[in-house]
Write a structure and sequence with these properties.
The protein has three helices and no strands. It is mainly alpha-helical. It has a domain of about 35 residues. The termini are far apart. The mean pLDDT is about 65.
Length: about 70
């Protein structure tokens, strides 16, 4: 433990009982935020990866229902 941490042993014990320390909590929160961003259809990824939002193509209604003829 570094000296600047203000957690007492008792608080640390309760944190362990609850399951995660602050670093793990922060990491999980970050993962969750990234996950939400990734699956949000309104956002585009700025990192230069795939563009998640796709323009919907006009689909022939017969093809959509499973008719495979072209």
């Amino acid at each position: 433990m570094s000296g600047d941490s203000r957690c007492t042993d008792l608080q640390l014990k309760f944190l362990r009982i609850r399951g995660k320390n602050n670093q793990e909590r922060r990491r999980d929160q970050q993962k969750q935020q990234n996950n939400n961003k990734r699956h949000d259809p309104t956002t585009r990824r700025e990192e230069g990866g795939r563009v998640e939002k796709k323009e919907s193509k006009l689909v022939n209604p017969a093809r959509r229902k499973g008719d495979k003829r072209k």
